[in-house]
Every structure is written in C-alpha cells, then in structure tokens.
Design brief:
Blueprint: H1 5-8, E1 13-17, H2 19-31, E2 37-40, E3 46-47, E4 50-51, E5 65-69, H3 72-85, E6 90-92, H4 103-113, E7 118-119, E8 125-128, E9 133-135, E10 148-153, H5 156-163, E11 171-176, H6 185-192, E12 198-205, H7 211-224, E13 228-232, H8 237-247, H9 254-263, E14 267-269, H10 272-283, E15 293-297, H11 300-309, H12 322-329, E16 342-343, H13 352-363, E17 369-373, H14 385-401, E18 405-409, H15 417-425, E19 429-432, H16 434-446, E20 463-467, H17 469-479, E21 486-489, H18 494-501, E22 505-509, H19 515-518, E23 521-525, H20 528-537, E24 544-548, E25 555-564, E26 568-575, H21 580-583, E27 586-590, H22 595-603, H23 622-636, E28 641-651, E29 656-658, E30 661-667
Parallel strand pairs: 1-2, 1-5, 5-6, 6-7, 10-11, 10-12, 12-13, 13-14, 15-16, 15-17, 17-18, 18-19
Antiparallel strand pairs: 3-4, 8-9, 8-11, 20-30, 21-24, 22-23, 22-24, 25-26, 25-28, 26-27, 28-29, 28-30
C-alpha cells in the first residue's frame, strides 16, 4: 500500500463534481484549510466562491488529495488521469460498484487507479481537524484540535452521526472507507499510528478486508500503546446480509471476529454510545492497569445499580481490605458502612474539604480506577454548585493520590456541557450513562491486554465432502487422539462385534450426521438383548459402528476446529452433548493456540465448574482435554480439512475420549 500521508493530510486539494464537490469546498473553508483548493467543473465558474478549472488536466499543480463527486463511470476515467499525473490519493464518493453486485466495475476502478490509493468507492471521505482538511460532502460536528482520537467507519452515514456527538469526545479524525476496494480499514489504522497526535483509534466495521494485515497493525498499535476499540456490525444473519449488500465485503461470522479482536488486544463494544464513551476514557489516560474498581456515590440506590450491573463481571468490585476500610471509616460518621460499591451518604454534601478527605482515603488503595456516580441538575434554572463541589473533591483526591478517577452519570442527560467542561478542566473524564460507562471501563481494562503471534491464514474451500464417522475416528487415532475401541460391520455381524468389543457397547448407524435426532445411536447397551432391540429400532443402514461405551465420564465437552474465512481457523470449546445448541455455552479462539490459551478459554465457560468438581463430583482430567485440543488444532491447520467437530469429548477422571466426530474436508 502506498503512503497515505498525502491523502490523509494533504497540502493541496482538488474537487471534481457538482453539489457534493461544492459542499467539500465549503467544509474545507469552514475548517480553515490552509492550502490551495482547486475545484473542477466543465461548466461552472466557481464552487462556493472558489474559481473552477474545466478539467483535471487543467489543474495548476499535482494535488495531494482529490475528491471525486462524480458518477461511477466518470470516477473510473478520472482515476486514470490522477494516476498519470501522480496525485497523492482520492476519495471516490460515487456508488454502484461491488456493493450493488458490480464487481467487474470495481475491478476496472482498481485497474484505472494503479498505484494511486483511494477511499471507497461508496464512501464519504475524511475529516482531519489536526490539519484542517475536510474531504467531506456533508455537515460534520468536528472542531479543530491539536490531538485526539481517530475513527474509521465502513458506514458513511454512521460516520456523519459520530461527528455530531455531544459527549465531550476529542474527535480529531474520521475516515469513511466504504467498499475498501483500495484502502482498507487496516491501512487507515496503520497510517494513524504514524501520527503522534492520535491518542486512540475507534472502528465501526462490517468486514475486515485483510485479517492478516489487521493483525500486523493491531500488534503495532499494541507496541506503541495506542488502544483500539471496535464496534462490529452484521453479527446476526440479517445484519450480515445487509452488511454484504451495503459494502460488497464478506462479513464473516461474529465469533471469528471476536476471537480476532481478543487475540490482538482490541476492545469491543456494542453500540455507538459505548464506542464514544470508551474512546473518551482512553483519550484521557489510556488503558486501565487492571479491572479492580471502586464505585462511590451518595446514594444506596446508585450503589445497588452499580453492583447489579457488575455482578457477572468482568469488572471486579472487591471489598476494601481491613486497613483500607479503617482509613476510610476515620473520615466518616459511625452511621456510614464502608463497602464497595460505597455509599458515602450526604452528611458532608457541599463541604469540599470533608468530601475530598473521604475520597482521598478511598482512592489511596489498590484499585485501578475509582468512579464517582454523579448526576447534576442540567437546566439553566438549576444551581449545580453543590455537585461541582463533589466533582472538585474527586479531582482534589485524584491529584493528591496521583490515582485515576472518573465521574459517571447514571443518565447521560444529567451532565450537561457546562458540567462536562468543568470536569474536563480538572483532568477528569465524564462518562455519560451508567451502562455505557461500565462497558467503557471494562473495555479500557481489556484493550491491549495481549498480542499473540499472527494467527493462521485461511482460504474458503471450493468443494467439500463429508468423511464418515468411522474413517474420521481412524484419522483421529492416527493423530494420537483417544477414541472408543470399535468395529464397523453389517447388520448380521453386530452381535459378534459387540462380544468382541465387550459390553456395555454403543451402536451407531453410519451415514447419518445428526444421529441423536434420528434415533441412529444407542449408548450403554448392556447385553445382547438390549443390542438386538436397539438394532431393530434404529434406521436401517449398510454399515454399523459398534464401540465400547466410555464409562469414566465427568463432563461432555464440544471441541471443534474449522476454517472461518476471511478471518482464520476458529477453535471452539463448549458444553457438549445433545444440548449444545440449547445452552450455547462456548468459547472461541483463533489458531494456533497454546495450552494456556485453551485453559483460559475453558475458564470462561459457564459449565467450567463441571470440570473442576461441581457439588462433590470428581474433577475432570483437564490436562488431557487441553492436550487433545492442541493435538487436533496443530494437525488440521493449513491442511485440506474444512471442519472437525468432536461432540462430545467425554472427559473423565483420567483421559479425554472423542466419542463422536464430524469431519469435512476440501476436495481439490
């Protein structure tokens, strides 16, 4: 990819087209772009008062950046001209390319552009307030800044909406990438990392064009301590279909994206408000050092809200240590109980020195962040002075202890611009909305937490075939994965095979993928009578699998490895058995994985306690399960395998045995 500096921070601009191009001129003038602006139009004398030249060939000099607000065919022609003159880059505003199914026209655009990088097509462009440039054919709400966050959005209209935010975020740069035909989201992130003015990076994405390159730039961001936050859409079946038709990109499945972000320390959020609040927190102080949080409020109701919203993690609201609690108690009356979340009551409301003394004692602890829940009267008719005292007391305590603190409004509308400005002036962050704030704090505690070596690349298979269970288990056994001893026989030889294998046995009718639903499997047959009855009841088949029934069972676990293009090889662990889909208790990783990765993924399962000795039951042999997962993933990565699903793997007190196997491979 060519250097994007000329496009993202140009010294000269050309704009071509009618109304959209004129709006770009207006926005550049409004923002105070210091360089020359050259409008191009064959008939008009000027755009927004700036004189036009009739064609790109008539430009007085080679532009660093060009906005093309013309139709798709004219865009292709214009890119050829820009290529011949050596322009720095372009914004292709026009639509009607891959997002509408016209892949050939998008290929023509790429061929025409050659080595000239461009945003789009089907995109809004960029606003860079650091350098006072707005290749942006619409209104935006951004103001000149010397540093702040950068956002890349695959949706032009969402990008517009984000610029209108009124949450106090220092939004310095926003880029709309559209179809990502030339410049991808990962290229923008890489360019932002060259700019020391960028403090954090936000992503609104539907698809990552090049996951391997994304891994490289995310690792670079980790090394430079520039946090990244992602809001991934198209996660539902309907949303994925919309995303594909919207951008012409393959969205991939949500689990693979989540595993990708987790692997490279990219924090994830669910809503635009959460994205903005997280970026705001990261902009003022960077990632948190950990997940230990203390919450303070002057109300038990607010303390209960925080406790309820945080009950299942990932934030840790640990009780005060005895010595710490005694120091806090010394600043209060005997009527106040010190706990976390902490209700400090209103006995000292309005007394800055007393509140600051209490807050200082609270903040002088081992927590990674202290949050003050504070909703202030927002109306001009109200007097917020007492609430300002509370905020100032928190700032005083933060300065005294040199520890990190934030103000959290339960309701976003209860910290108005005046209050937010005052809080910001005291070097504190005001987070708007309790739910959004807790999400932002959790994200700030996880971003940059890890950065593994690059994950394995993957290609979508052309044609596939299903390997039957008996053959799949033979292959597993060759890999060193334990499977039940058994034989494949015809119906007449089932009884003899069972005698050879030894009762109790499991009988399966081969040729059926989901055997439980069709009655094609019977487990734990104790004698020949039970075997005969089971054979008579199950669907007739040419071949049957007779296996020894595994009796050492502590837990049933799902283990799967599959190609998940365009992202990578997805490893899935979860609660196994016939109710797997019902409980959806799964954890995902991208291969290759380590033993520690697998152990950590298992601990995230709701069913993990079944492995550790739940309610007096024996503990499972977790290390044998970990070994099985590593053996499977190491064996299938980069091979003709498309998917291997072992469900269940029976984990006993000793050992882990794959008793069912689905194996799909590519036919080349």
């Amino acid at each position: 990819m060519a250097d994007l500096h000329r496009l993202l921070a140009p010294r000269s601009i050309a704009v071509a087209g009618g109304a959209p191009a004129e709006r770009v001129v207006q926005q550049c003038l409004k923002l105070g772009f210091p360089g020359p602006i050259w409008p191009v139009h064959p008939k008009r004398a000027d755009l927004a008062g700036v004189p036009c030249v009739p064609s790109l060939d008539d430009l007085p000099d080679v532009p660093d950046a060009v906005f093309l607000g013309v139709n798709r065919h004219a865009t292709i022609e214009a890119m050829a001209v820009l290529r011949s003159m050596g322009a720095g880059g372009a914004v292709c505003y026009g639509s009607g390319f891959a997002e509408t199914g016209d892949d050939d026209l998008q290929t023509d655009l790429l061929d025409s552009a050659g080595d000239v990088p461009f945003l789009g097509p089907n995109c809004y462009g960029l606003v860079n307030t650091f350098d006072r440039v707005a290749l942006w054919p619409d209104e935006h709400g951004m103001q000149p800044l010397d540093e702040g966050v950068a956002i890349v959005s695959q949706s032009g209209n969402v990008a517009v909406n984000l610029t209108f935010q009124q949450r106090g975020l220092r939004l310095g740069t926003i880029v709309s990438v559209g179809n990502q035909a030339s410049i991808g989201m990962e290229d923008c992130v890489d360019a932002f990392l060259d700019d020391r003015r960028v403090t954090a990076i936000g992503l609104f994405l539907e698809a990552i064009r090049d996951p391997q390159r994304f891994a490289v730039v995310a690792s670079r961001a980790h090394d430079q301590r520039v946090p990244i936050v992602a809001l991934h859409t198209g996660r539902s079946a309907t949303g994925a279909a919309i995303a594909t038709s919207h951008t012409g990109s393959m969205s991939g499945r949500a689990a693979a994206y989540d595993a990708l972000f987790a692997r490279y320390g990219v924090a994830t959020v669910r809503t635009p408000a959460e994205l903005l609040e997280t970026l705001k927190l990261l902009d003022n102080g960077g990632p948190l050092s950990g997940r230990k949080i203390v919450s303070m409020s002057c109300s038990g109701g607010e303390a209960s809200l925080v406790a309820d919203r945080s009950e299942h993690g990932p934030l840790q609201f640990e009780p005060f240590a005895d010595e710490h609690r005694h120091r806090v108690e010394s600043t209060l009356t005997e009527l106040v109980t010190v706990s976390n979340p902490f209700d400090y009551h209103t006995f000292m409301w309005g007394d800055r020195a007393a509140i600051a003394k209490c807050f200082t004692a609270v903040m002088d602890g081992s927590q990674d962040l202290t949050m003050l829940v504070l909703d202030a009267p927002p109306s001009p008719d109200n007097d917020p002075s007492a609430w300002i005292v509370a905020a100032d007391a928190l700032a005083d305590a933060a300065e005294s202890t040199q520890r990190r603190a934030v103000v959290v409004a339960t309701l976003a509308e209860c910290l108005n611009e005046r209050m937010r400005s005052h809080i910001s002036g005291r070097n504190l962050t005001a987070l708007l909305g309790l739910e959004e704030a807790l999400t932002a704090i959790a994200a700030a505690a996880t971003t940059g937490a890890r950065c593994d070596p690059p994950h394995a690349a993957v290609e979508a298979p052309a044609r596939t075939r299903l390997v039957d269970e008996a053959e799949a288990k033979r292959r597993l056994a060759e890999l060193g994965i334990d499977t039940p001893g058994g034989r494949v026989v015809g119906a007449d030889d089932v009884a003899a095979a069972a005698s050879e294998v030894g009762y109790p046995v499991t009988l399966k009718s081969l040729g059926t993928v989901h055997k439980s639903e069709s009655g094609a499997v019977k487990v734990g047959l104790a004698d020949v009578a039970a075997l005969s009855a089971a054979l008579a009841e199950m669907p007739a088949a040419d071949r049957y699998l007779v296996e020894a029934t595994v009796t050492d069972v502590v837990a049933e676990v799902l283990v799967a490895a599959r190609r998940d293009p365009p992202i990578g090889w997805l490893v899935t662990l979860g609660l196994g058995g016939v109710t797997t889909e019902l409980w959806s208790d799964v954890s995902h990783l991208l291969a290759p994985v380590t033993a520690d990765d697998v152990r950590h993924a298992l601990t995230k399962l709701r069913s993990y306690r079944l492995l550790t000795g739940f309610r007096g039951r024996p503990a499972a042999d977790i290390e044998s399960l970990v070994s099985l997962v590593l053996t499977l993933t190491d064996a299938v990565i980069g091979t003709e395998v498309v998917e291997v699903e072992l469900n269940p793997v029976l984990v006993g007190r000793r050992g882990a045995v794959a008793v069912d196997a689905l194996w799909i491979e590519e036919v080349r």
